[in-house]
Fold each of these.
Amino acid sequence: MAENEYVPLFETRQVKGRILFRCIAASILLGICLIVMYRIRYFSIGGKAERWTWIGLFLSELWFSFYWLLTTVCRGNAVIRIPFIHRLSQRFGKELPGIDIFVCTADPLLEPPSMVVNTVLSMMAYDYPPEKLSVYLSDDGGSNLTFYAMLEAANFSKTWLPFCKKFKVEPMSPEAYFRTASEPLNVEEWPSVKRLYEEMKMRIETTTKLNQIPQHVYKQHKGFREWNFVTSKHDHQTILQILIDGRDTNAVDIEGNPLPTLVYLAREKRPQYHHHFKAGAMNALIRISSRISNAPIILNVDCDMYSNNSESIKYSLCIFMDEEKGDEFGYVQFPQSFDNLTKNDIYGCSFRVIQKLEVKGLDANGGPCFIGTGCFHRREALCGKKYEKNFRFDLKKLNNTKVNERASLLEEICKVLASCTFEHNTTWGKEMGLIYGFPVEDIVTGLSVQCRGWKSVFLDPERDGFFGVAPITLLQLLVQHKRWTEGHLQVFLSKYCPLLYGYKKIPLKLRLAYCAYNLWAANCLATLYYVVVPCLCLLKGIKLFPKISSPWVLPFAYVAFSHHAYSLGEFLWCGGTFLGWCNDQRMWLFKRTTSYLFASLETILKLLGYSQLAFVITTKVADEDVSKRYDQEMIEFGVASPMFNILATLAILNLLGSFGTMKKVTMHADKGFKVLDQFGLQILLCLVLVTMNLPVYQALFFRMDKGKMPSSVTYKSIIFALLACTLSVY
């Protein structure tokens, strides 16, 4: 194609509202400067307690200001990418590259096989030439139940894939499709396909419940014999089965069309070898797939993240195959979306503003981070290759690898690639594949790819590319964020610290933006101080803020109001609701005072050698009562946890502080206005915290369902709060 005939496959546009954001950010920065001036000018010269509480509050405000700058630095020039898939089809036709799709699961109890099957089927059903699709499932649970479910999926795909293509089905997950779509008129296949799916689902769920493979099924496939040699899920040989061989002319659906390749892998595990969790599973899949299909593009998804957009592959190829800029990009990241969110997103799981605005700011400064799922990778970039400016990648030629071995022979040849000892004395986990040693292997891997010269892109099409399952209990959410926060902090304290590792490799703005995530944990101390100390000082009569009648109250009021008002505006603009924003602010408080605190403590223990790296899997199942309360937007407590002890104690503490102040105002009418003038902002802060904790009070004192706060937590929190109030007075 001549240079003057070049037409881009994607377009980059600036996000609207940049000037407004910069003006408001500048005004907030001015307000922060005035607050700093106030703290310095009116430094407390009273007693020792007054001085130290003033210093602590000042340091907390300095930290909040610094962290606000980190989160703001990339927001001013956010961009959106618009792919043109019609141009892709016109330009390349059928000369499209192969795609290898990796699905990872680890526990059949927490991640039910029926859910895994839906994800796998949705990946096989993309609007893409099936002979160029290969789907790989990594089963780190080494479960014959998951293997059985994959056999059922392979059989049902012969009916499901032609049904999807014929009627342009979206989403491509059978469960999601039949749950959300109404039966169309004049579609004879609908009832029969739905019946076949429900029968398959029932067989899988019955087998999972009984924890036993039916004898007649066990004899039908040679793969089940592998489990005769399995000691446990932590001690077994490599199990590799090519369930559908896309090269086989007999591998066709009910209409005679070819099927995608489907591969099951349970990599070798031995107690004496570290398996490196999801990162190790992904690296094993990279090696196995390089021998079987060797597609130049890899898509990885979690087992609960089904495909919701049949064009997602083509969207990503518009980035990779653009003749002018495509060679620069190492990966294309899609948003992480969820299909089980309530109307007002009770647990603030949508990442609405982060994905609609913050990540798009990263995209303008070198690219978004890799978030572990819904990401298309260039195989060379993921395998450690450095970007070379003048080197051109021909994705079509890279996919011309032909494999001639029979499937059974290929299975035996590839098993060594997933053995425990294969990576010894190699750069796997260090320079090749996903990086080992962190709970957030995705973040550090994306950073290392960018530091090798590659850029990345964030694609947010109008129809969500993928849907997953969000936590439906508060403890699930807090534990999940504890793991993420712990991993981010470990990255910051390691050689992969973005400020140092990315020096002269990626833009300064991008390094600072990474730090905003890496330093989540550091927010816990400042937040705890702001939640606890003003309340206790209110009881003791220590003033920490300017009087309501003083002009110095204006910068405090302006910063608080403008920041939250703009935050609300952004949330509504991104499709949220007012109650959704309130829930988001509440979860922000809960995570900072629990998840971030425990993540910090765990990281310190790990650095001292008292704790080992662990990977906590978030359960994807819940009983009917929990699901019902979730749909009613009732926060689920239900179990005793140290995190709930902290939340309940802080809530009661601020409630007692508010009651104590109200008592002073009402019982001493002559001094009431003076108290309000002196302590107005502290009282307002306490009341805001009390309002945010209303669901906690309901769970402590009023709810009678199983999701209420356990009695042990209630008693402990009351004792702790009363003890703190008593000690503060003396």
Amino acid sequence: MGLFWRVLVALPFFFAYVNGEHFTYPSRHPGKAELAGFKGPDSLATDGGGFFSGPLIVDDDVAATTGNQGGTTEVTVGKPGDDTLETSLANDGIGNANMIEAATTFKGSWELFLENGGVSAMHLILLPKINQALMFDATVWKISKIKLPGPPCRHVEGTNEEDCFAHSVLMDIDTGKLRPLRLKYDTWCSSGGLDINGRLVSTGGYNNGSDTVRILDLCDTCDWKEYPGALANGRWYATQVTLGDGKFMVFGGRDFPTYEFVPPEGKKNTHQDVVDFKFLVETHDPVENNLYPFVYLSTDGNVFIFANNRSVLLNPKTHNIIHEFPVLPNGARNYPASGSACLLPIILKPNEDRKVIPAEILVCGGAPHDAYEKADLQRPKVFLPGSCDCARLDFTKRDSKWNIFNMPSARLLEDMAVLPTGDVLIVNGAKTGSAGWDDAREPNLNPVLYKFQTDGTGSKFTVLNPSNIPRMYHSSFAILPDAKVLIAGSNTNPGYLDDALFPTEVRVEKFSPHYLDPNLAMFRQEIITEKSDNQLKYGQKFTVQIRGNDVIDQQKLQVTIYSPPFVTHGICMNQRLIQLGILEFNKDVAPNTNNIVLQAPMNGNIAQPGYYMLFVNYNGVPCLRSMWVQILP
């Protein structure tokens, strides 16, 4: 790491700046985490956070319901264009084009799931089969809100210190029970993804962890396996992507405008395995703005990479850039300008035979190119307004141009969660500033729902009910099997601080989107897992059995599969939702029970091998609980 960045990283440790024109959030009361197998009081650090019980803070221009209970609900089933929360066609002429959604004015509700998640969730991913959320931050600060259950502690490299705090936990998504995990090599600002067997393969980080590959398997007693030196370049603020054959590539990282394939477990790359990537040199601003690039596998096997304000298609076999798309104007989008992006749903036909399956990216928010310089390096700090715009691009078309439109409010440091229905929840973040320690202001407390397909008669955006917990820098999310959204993280501080303007956040929330309006519960189907196929082969038929309370109209059914992303810094690595083509619908195979015959995706470029959450949506309302399915090569 160059001298400039060493000084830059060290600056926040030498001074703290407080802008007197902004308020400080009320102090929180202590909370306790429940440990699996260890419940002694010494296992917890003091002040585990707690529920903020002060008055609800709402933006002046946003109407919200007191107590986050949602608005008055009027349940109808109508055609798109109703003047309620925007209804939509299932897809643009593909598959069940006549599907209609139940309409509701319910704007979501929040619940405090856990007062102390043990660590501030800088990184978050839902692990398949075991239904546990993995949350971790960094070892560099040698502290968290939860201690290891016993020896051995971590020896702090280069010192005589021992660190007995946990920096990684597994959290049961139903009970909140925590299991601390041991980390030796620093995971600060790392990357990751699930392999074909559902294991997390994590890459990079800070200092001694920058060239490390880590693997976490799925079992009740599994702990991290760490392989330092496995990567040839340091990967700090890098992005990992899964290819159609299940292999991983990792792009970029501070001081390394390169990429490499992640080696098999226990193997090490050499410098001959590194590919120089001039695109990351060209997109580097004086304050970067191209770290954590947005990287997605295209349905044709090429790799789409967006950095700063430019984007290209890379052939991962020839290492050639085969196309560059138009520049996206209005500021920078990647770290530290830190907008967010997601891959919009990939929609498949029954008996799919198209040569090219459309794949479209949505990029939202960000900040001016000099936002970090103004907020972090200038005194007094200046917090520039974030971007208000979103943009879509189909990167399977060589003549694609950006379709740009406005969000209801400015946002940076946000997350973009693709919901089981295919719509996008834009959540967390701030309205002004930049990524970095104490570098953002004006938390954007209201999630926004983006309807990715409408009939054009109404707004694509709906402002939903706010949380009362600011989720700023280092926030994260996970889609849960019951279709709620887990929300965690937020740490604008170099360490765990409880008296900062925005304290280090260890509280964990769950958000219930619009489709979980209690009055829509009649539409929620139950997947009969023991009568459904859960191992899939590319292109083959498979059956899912559902049970409900009423007669089912096939035209109102939608089946999607969702790959859980590795979430950090507004980057949702490998997030992918695919709407499957329905081949047959067999009614009444038992009382109130129906079989859906589906076609698995045709190849690994459409859906990489591995685990997916399968949702059955009826009238736009997800099933009671998703089913894990594994796509095998």
Amino acid sequence: MQAKKRYFILLSAGSCLALLFYFGGLQFRASRSHSRREEPRGRNGLHRPSPDRFWPRFPDALRPFVPWDQLENEDSGVHASPRQKRDANSSLYKGKKCRMESCFDFTLCKKNGFKVYVYPQQKGEKIAESYQNILAAIEGSRFYTSDPSQACLFVLSLDTLDRDQLSPQYVHNLRSKVQSLHLWNNGRNHLIFNLYSGTWPDYTEDVGFDIGQAMLAKASISTENFRPNFDVSIPLFSKDHPRTGGERGFLKFNTIPPLRKYMLVFKGKRYLTGIGSDTRNALYHVHNGEDVIPSTIRSIHQDKILALRQQTQFLWEAYFSSVEKIVLTTLEIIQDRIFKHISRNSLIWNKHPGGLFVLPQYSSYLGDFPYYYANLGLKPPSKFTAVIHAVTPLVSQSQPVLKLLVAAAKSQYCAQIIVLWNCDKPLPAKHRWPATAVPVIVIEGESKVMSSRFLPYDNIITDAVLSLDEDTVLSTTEVDFAFTVWQSFPERIVGYPARSHFWDNSKERWGYTSKWTNDYSMVLTGAAIYHKYYHYLYTHYLPASLKNMVDQLANCEDILMNFLVSAVTKLPPIKVTQKKQYKETMMGQTSRASRWADPDHFAQRQSCMNTFASWFGYMPLIHSQMRLDPVLFKDQVSILRKKYRDIERL
């Protein structure tokens, strides 16, 4: 009897204890959730998941309770109706389950590709400079379309960056303005940029209007509200952040071993409460006033530190150093989500030159790009296609273009020759072209403009392209040597005629020079080898405004190609064996003598330099003093011991 009584008392006590823990736990979690919403947060606050974040979440979970008297109207402190306050509170949670598959219309992108439409700016609407920079970056990109019927993605012209009611940049009545847009469609296929949301003391993440099914490109977004593979987390940049270009990283040179006084550095305020306070406060306690105390940091090998430091410089320069790069990176991420079958992998995003310059529409195979041969264990291409740009009628069998064609065809590395006929006269008959051991394909340019020489023609079957002007004078030996050099530097331009740029202090502008000096920053495409991917980049990456300028002037296409390649590689071109007679020979030809003798030609190239630098946001050209010559070049040894012996006789 006594035993039964003891068992009954024990069972009763256990049941009471279980109920106490159950109801007490619910109350604790509710109070904790409530306290987190009321904690202040700095604008540059970091967000980390709370411990209860890792527990399962059920679809029927109760929404956090906020008293109505703590809610405010977006425009003033005027008392709102209970229904309005409920709607304002629930705007945070509408569309919280949105994913690309449920809240994005892919059919808009299948027809015309990834095109972005920016709403026209309304008269009288104030727009902060930072948001103007975002819109300018979109409108200047290859994604932009002014036709909403062609668009896959829509961006508001209403400034949504700063949604702090205490900020002078705050746009009032945004809810009604957004709902009045006839293309809004509950936010479907819309992208909203936001840096600041909420106000003191709560700093909630409510942007002040119902975003519906729109995607958020937002800074300091919490893990609780971030919708994976739908929203995009962007860095919190200042109003002084450059629109284009941007400064390079602070790592100017590599110190080996990479030792520094400070092992761990954190920029930001220390928060005792609020979102991100756990992490920030923990970082404060890893220092004892004299030195850092987790042994983990000191256990990292110096080689690893150097590699990580170099990687941070790459990531900064590739994606974060300007507003334009932040915006374009955001758009590229969304494009990858839409077209998953050609989306870029982690190697492309995390290795030079980065995701912004590796366009997946060109190819889904990394071996088709000039940057990954070593990673894939591949050898560079063994053949090239010679592309000769012809602008003069064929009237004599002794014309330089025919001699050039024969010299290129005799190269052991030549797979085929393409003649781009950009002449106003009709195509010559087939029998006018010399017989060669490799195929000769003549393409008549449709538009007959300068940029057409860099179109990604399907006829080019090799990765390597030997670009030639019709009046270029090159021997077969020179062609062979230049190609063997390019095989060691497949991502760069390798060739003969070199030019340079300089800063003119008196005119405060960039200058162009063709003087023979000890350095250079460009190799002209009249006699150069490069990867054919640059034809695709030139055509699809560069804006129409720059290409139109080239076509109108019939000039500067070679300068623009050098700007592009140097911007991608962050490296100078490579000049091979000096050939001073190139300039004199070229000037003596009748086909283009008038062009080079024209005083406007040189002035145009000066103007092009500054226009190009303005679009890139900086000067991408890099000076070099390196010239590659054949082994034993000009050495006092028997000519029979030299592989490229004919070069010395030129």
